[in-house]
Design brief:
The structure holds two protein chains of two kinds.
Chain A lengths: L1 E7 L6 H12 L5 E13 L4 H12 L5 E6 L12 E8 L7 H11 L7 E12 L3 H12 L5 E3 L25 H5 L3 H14 L5 H10 L2 H4 L6 E4 L2 E4 L1 H4 L1 H8 L4 E3 L6 E4 L4 E9 L1 H6 L1 H17 L6 E11 L16 H19 L3 E8 L8 E11 L13 E6 L10 E3 L11 E3 L7 H16 L5 E4 L4 H9 L5 E4 L12 H6 L5 E6 L4 H10 L4 E7 L4 E6 L2 E7 H6 L5 E4 L18 H8 L8 H4 L10 E3 L2 E2 L5 E2 L3 E3 L8 E7 L2 H4 L3 H18 L7 E8 L6 H21 L3 E7 L3 E4 L2 E4 L3 E10 L16 E5 L10 H5 L12 H16 L5 E4 L4 H13 L2 E5 L12 H6 L6 E5 L4 H8 L5 E8 L3 E5 L5 E6 H9 L5
Helix pairs in contact in A: 10-23, 12-13, 13-14, 19-29, 22-23, 22-25, 25-28, 26-29
Chain B lengths: L4 E6 L6 H10 L3 E6 H5 L10 E4 L13 H20 L3 E5 L1 H8 L14 E3 L7 E9 L13 E8 L3 E3 L10 E6 L20 E5 L5 E4 L15 H4 L8 H12 L2
Parallel strand pairs in B: 1-2, 1-3, 3-4, 4-11
Antiparallel strand pairs in B: 5-8, 6-7, 6-9, 9-10, 10-11
The chains are: A alpha+beta, B alpha/beta.
Chain lengths: 946, 255
């Protein structure tokens, strides 16, 4: 066993260490002056000194900046002074560290063979006077996540092997099945009846298969339930709302909807776009980095596994966390601090997405204390494929089942048995859950090779392996034929997995193909050529049965019909009462500057540049409108535009809408507002409504509670109502329910959170408009009507109020208005456009001003109102939907009005100035706000300048 | 007339090959993208090409350090082929990860390739930086790729873009690009120099000027609509990066 420690030379600044010093200071521990981070490699092999020298000097250490030590023991250099502390952190057993495979490959290249195992660790050398409790705080709050890591204290003697698995066919007594698999009474009844008819007990694999296939995650039983709400009964919520809208709209450009892993629309007659957004909430809560990384990895495989496979071209991400300044002492037991979750999630998404070479171009970050134990991590991917590949393929009996990509381990299986996590002990078995870090390069290689195979027509069908692992993917793929799977053929990461574990493992980076036998040789050659593992694990049959074998033994034999149709429909009761919140009881302040500065500096509104710049948003060279725009490239863009085909002018616009605060008043208007917001952003950047498709992602609390389910029903109803009027069909969606956490008897449920993502086709990307003010003297128009809609606004939140007058959507007027504005933009009459959302006119005009580096003058008395509003603050900060601020050049004004005037409420409310000051005048014509744009921008940038 | 043949290297984790191919095609070249295994198996002989490109990406995940594993692989398995490609007068372009690879394999800044005199290290900010930068071209550089170019505005996207020379400064002629501020001033702070590079170096070449590597991405600014401010400053037909590819193709025609 050899230990190599690699460290930066003394005079080299340690950027990783400096970042950690900041984080330690944020904990309130200010005595730390310096941290150095060293990389540790444990090599289990017999190596000569020359070999070690070669490995260190040629591979592990950089000759210019780093130095190295090797030996057989820990803490080689005795330089730990009285005020120096060393913490060494290693991964637990069962955590797959992708670096190990890379090192193995690199050692082979160097001609070093016979290495039995490689482990990596990290050593932190901390300078500063610290007591034990402070060290413990640094370790537990920043360095170690016990789910995947531990501190190393002793010398390892070898890496123990996992205990071997010895085959035993396991049967389950039906009366014990409830506790073990979590079936409902009705489900268990159906299962019992089925196996009584078969005249035998089920095996564990059969029960696992049913549990996975019938899970909320796979079958969406709540959305398909029979729900009683008052007098009304809804038989299958999703069919009667979201899917119903799509069916009724019958858009010919919808190519594949609700039928596959992602929704598909036509792009330009030759190519199709494919869009999906998923959540990875629970894994991100317990291990933010790995959870979020595998979240992005998972959603990328959705377009790849849709139709015959789409190439991923854009990622989106939306996060919901508790505020980063959440007090440590209020943190529930076992919950990571939101700042750590935020940083870990951001890093996970960035590291995985950047490595895949997919630009992350759109997203949002929201904050609410109730996300403390259940952070939400939405990841989305847009893909493109030739139109003829847009429909799901169909395999024939006799086609082979091929698994491609990553190996199978115990990832996602809880309470499994592993060799000891401690490097030092012999293989004492301990129970722990396996969390995966994810390996983006494996996934990148899979994408590269799969698309070659697709274009050579070498497979008949494709799907991804996600939740439920092989059991869901193969079970679904074989539904209309039947399938035999030989589980002992599945390539494993390590020994010791039982057949059931292989079957339900959620290991990442795996895709499944159905391959006609005559194509198999050519297909396997493509994968082999680029070192991608692909293995035949079964074949499709015509007997409509799911049969699993392990070493020749039949371990599962289920009829497909029972597996897929046997689940009894769930019956639920829903109820919904509009809550009543306190209304504002304060007077309008004379100066609104302070309120505007405060709103700009709230966690929700403030600049997310820190996040955005750590994503590669330029890779693939396709973007036309970036997430950050304006004079200094740091203003908040409304939606992203890309040019998916580099030599065409056709574009794709991606946007999102989300506003959980409105859901506290009425989830119906929350959903309607989210849809309106996503559409507004498309209009703002120069798109139109003629080809917009939506995705829904519901994250909800415990839907067994009638009021929480009632809220879900209302939100879904709004989705239908709005989609029908706007003529924007839903093409795919996903739900994540039961997001609640019990802390000392108190249940923390997340706010009802609906994310609406929109994809739109733009005819000519050269018509794109950004939100920054362009030129002094240009006019500022407001398009749309302002109402006294302060409910759920950022402004009331400053006063810790929610209010009741939630922003509504008047979709018929809104649609007309958006279409007129889209026409004006297409004619080139709009110099800048920004939608009014959180913080209303106030935030929108401030953002346009500082993004353009220009001042503005605004008169609130000209703002068209839908009802009498006699307060300047309400007009400035109302969050009424369907409103835009538009910059129009004086010479274009006449034509702009000509296009807009019919049936649209609009008014010129001011103009762009070169004064670098935002001046706002109230209803009585007196000034209510005068702020330097530099101060507004500073307030907006400061909170997340980490 | 036969077109200039360009070979773009693909490998585990390269991810800018498609847009780099597009840039070379726009510049009039014939482009082949080949996986490193195809080169190692000699299915695609390097000797058939005039321009060899190592693009951006995260080869082998940038595990251990950025570009390191691919650098060793190239050096150990294709070192001879690359040497004779260079001796024959071929052009080599390394972008971002390609820069890291060429330096760590010893092909840049030049010499016998046994030593690695400089390196690319973690940015001073400790972060991955995706932002646009102003670049100045060193007039006295022999670089073929930047001939006639004075300044460029291009995006960077990297976490390890800081040039470190380990005491021995690079000869002036090997410095091709340095970061500047938008007015062209030579001593930019962060974020105009996003990495904190020694001498604010963003790109270097060998003594012949035929091997060139840079951290910024010229292939991401081929056309006007890629400029971050085209919606306010007006849109040009071509982007600042295109001349890099035009120069290469023009020169390679003469080989």
């Amino acid at each position: 066993m050899h230990r190599v420690e690699v460290r930066l030379k003394k005079h080299q600044p340690d950027a990783r260490g400096l970042g950690l010093v900041k984080d330690i200071h944020d904990l309130g521990i200010t005595s730390v002056s310096y941290v150095r981070v060293a990389d540790i490699y444990w090599l289990d092999a017999e190596l000569t000194r020359d070999q070690l020298e070669l490995i260190c000097s040629r591979l592990l250490a950089d000759p210019v900046t780093q130095e190295y030590w090797y030996g057989e023991s820990l803490h080689l250099e005795g330089e730990i002074g009285p005020n120096q502390h060393s913490i060494e952190v290693a991964y637990n057993a069962g955590v797959t560290d992708p670096i190990e495979a890379t090192i193995r490959k690199a050692l082979n290249d160097l001609g070093v063979t016979g290495v039995r195992a490689i482990k990596t660790a990290r050593r932190y050398l901390i300078d500063g006077r610290l007591d034990i409790s402070q060290l413990e705080a640094i370790s537990s709050k920043l360095l170690v996540n016990p789910i995947i890591q531990h501190t190393v204290s002793d010398e390892p003697s070898g890496f123990p092997e996992n205990p071997r698995y010895r085959f035993v066919r396991k049967e389950i007594e039906l009366n014990q099945a409830v506790q073990q698999f979590g079936f409902s009474d009705d489900e268990l009844k159906a299962i019992t009846a089925y196996f009584l008819k078969q005249g035998r007990n089920p095996t564990d694999a059969e029960m696992e298969t049913l549990a996975q296939t019938w899970s909320e995650h796979c079958v969406h039983k709540t959305f398909k339930a029979r729900i009683r709400l008052g007098e009304k009964t809804i038989d299958n919520l999703i069919k009667n709302t979201i899917i119903k809208a799509t069916r009724e709209l019958e858009k010919p450009w919808c190519l594949s909807v609700f039928a596959d892993n992602a929704g598909v629309i036509d792009f330009d007659g030759r190519q199709a776009l494919c869009f999906k957004v998923e959540t990875h909430n629970h894994p991100s809560a317990i291990e933010p980095y790995g959870g979020a990384a595998t979240g992005i990895g998972g959603v990328v495989r959705d377009p790849l596994g849709t139709g015959l496979g789409a190439r991923p071209i854009l990622n989106t991400d939306v996060f919901c966390f508790a505020p980063p300044d959440f007090p440590y002492e209020k943190l529930p037991q076992g919950v990571l601090h939101p700042r750590r979750i935020f940083k870990g999630v951001r890093a996970g998404v960035a590291d995985y997405g950047n490595r895949l070479g997919i630009p992350t171009l759109n997203g949002a970050v929201l904050f609410d204390e109730r996300y403390v134990a259940n952070p939400l991590v939405y990841c989305g991917t847009l893909g493109i494929m030739p139109r003829e590949y847009s429909n799901r393929g169909q395999q024939q009996p006799g086609d082979l089942v091929v698994v491609v990509g990553g190996r199978t381990g115990r990832d996602g299986i809880h309470g499994v048995t592993f060799a000891s996590e401690q490097l030092t002990q012999e293989s004492s078995a301990t129970s722990l859950s396996a969390v995966q870090i994810g390996n983006p390069i494996v996934e990148k290689k899979v994408i590269d090779t799969l698309l070659q195979a697709r274009d050579r027509h070498l497979y008949s069908r494709i799907t991804d392996c996600g939740g439920g692992g092989l059991s869901s993917a193969i079970g679904e793929m074989g539904a209309d034929t039947g399938v035999k799977v030989y589980l002992d053929k599945v390539p494993l990461k390590y020994a010791g997995l039982s057949y059931s574990e292989i079957w339900i493992s959620e290991s990442q980076e795996r895709m499944l193909l159905a391959v006609p036998p005559e194509c198999i040789e050519e297909l396997m050659a493509i994968f082999a050529s680029e070192d991608v593992e692909a293995v035949i694990i079964g074949e499709f049959t015509d007997d409509h049965r799911l049969q699993l074998f392990y070493q020749g033994n039949l371990v599962c034999d289920l009829e497909m019909e029972f597996l897929h149709q046997g689940i009894p429909q769930v019956e639920r009761v829903a109820d919904w009462q509009q809550p009543s919140h306190a209304e504002p009881d304060f007077d309008c302040p004379q100066d609104l500057g302070e309120a505007l500065l405060k709103i700009l500096g709230t966690w929700n509104v403030c600049s997310k540049e820190w996040v955005i710049r750590q994503y590669d948003h330029e890779v693939q060279g396709a973007n036309v409108l970036k997430p950050l725009v304006g004079k200094d490239n740091n203003g908040p863009g409304d939606a992203a535009i890309i040019r998916p085909i580099l030599d065409s002018d056709k574009g794709a616009i991606v946007s999102c809408g989300i506003n959980p605060r409105y859901g506290e008043i009425d989830p119906y208007w929350m959903a309607a507002s989210a849809i309106d917001e996503a559409l507004r952003q498309i209009i703002s950047v120069g798109g139109n409504l003629s080809r917009v498709a939506l995705l829904d992602n519901f994250c909800w609390g415990n839907v067994q509670q009638p009021d929480i389910l009632g809220a879900l029903v209302r939100a879904a109803q709004a989705c239908y109502d709005m989609a029908i009027v706007y003529e924007t069909p839903f093409i795919s969606g996903k739900d994540s329910l039961y997001n609640e956490f019990e802390d000392e008897g108190k249940v923390i449920s997340i706010p009802h959170t609906l994310l609406i993502s929109a994809i739109s086709v733009m005819d000519d990307v050269n018509r794109a408009v950004s939100m920054d003010f362009k030129k002094p003297g240009n006019l500022i128009y407001i398009v749309g009507t302002t109402w006294n809609e302060m409910g759920g606004s950022e402004y009331l939140r400053l006063y810790h109020l929610t209010g009741n007058s939630v922003p509504r959507v008047r979709p018929h007027q809104a649609k007309w208005l958006m279409e007129r504005l889209a026409t004006a933009t297409a004619k080139g009459l709009v110099r800048a456009c920004h939608d009014c959302s959180e913080g209303g006119i106030g935030v929108a005009v401030a953002e346009m001003a500082f993004a353009g580096g220009l001042g503005a003058l605004v008169h609130l008395k000209h703002v068209p109102l839908g009802e009498p509003v006699d307060r300047d603050d309400f007009i400035l900060f109302s969050e009424s939907n369907s409103r835009f601020l538009v910059e129009v050049a004086p010479e274009d004004e006449e034509q702009f009005i000509e296009v807009m005037k019919e049936g649209v409420n609009l008014a010129s409310i001011g103009q762009v100035s070169d004064s670098e000051t935002l001046e706002i005048y109230g209803l009585d014509g007196k000034p209510v706000l005068e702020q330097k744009i530099s101060e507004l921008k500073e307030a907006w940038q400061k909170p997340i300048r980490w | 007339m036969t077109k200039v043949r360009t070979l773009i290297l693909r490998g585990p984790g390269t991810n800018c090959d498609a847009e780099t191919a597009f840039a070379f095609q726009r510049a009039g070249a014939d482009v082949t993208s080949a996986h490193i295994n195809q080169l190692i198996r000699r299915e695609v002989p390097l000797s058939d090409y005039q321009i060899f490109v190592i693009t951006g990406g995260f080869t082998y995940g940038d595990d251990i350090s950025a570009g390191k594993v691919l650098a060793n692989e190239l050096k150990l398995k294709l070192g001879q082929d690359i040497r004779s490609f260079i001796d024959r007068g071929g052009l080599i372009l390394g972008i971002c990860n390609g820069f890291q690879v060429l330096v760590k394999a010893g092909f840049l800044p030049g010499g016998d390739g046994r030593e690695q005199p400089i390196t690319l290290s973690t940015n001073d900010s400790g972060r991955f930086e995706c932002r646009w930068v102003y670049l100045k071209v060193n007039e006295s550089s022999p670089c073929i790729f930047t001939e006639g170019i004075d300044r460029m505005y291009l995006p960077v996207a990297n976490g390890e873009g800081k040039v470190v020379t380990g005491g021995k400064a690079l000869p002036d002629s090997s410095i091709v690009l340095t970061y500047s501020d938008q007015y062209g001033n030579n001593d930019p702070g962060y974020p105009d120099d996003p990495s904190g590079s020694e001498g604010h170096i963003a790109g270097i070449c060998d003594a012949s000027g035929r091997i060139f590597a840079l951290m910024p991405h010229p292939e991401r600014h081929i056309r006007g609509t890629q400029h971050p401010r085209w919606t306010r400053e007006g849109v040009g037909k071509d982007g600042d990066g295109l001349p890099v590819f035009l120069n290469a193709v023009k020169w390679a025609k003469g080989i």
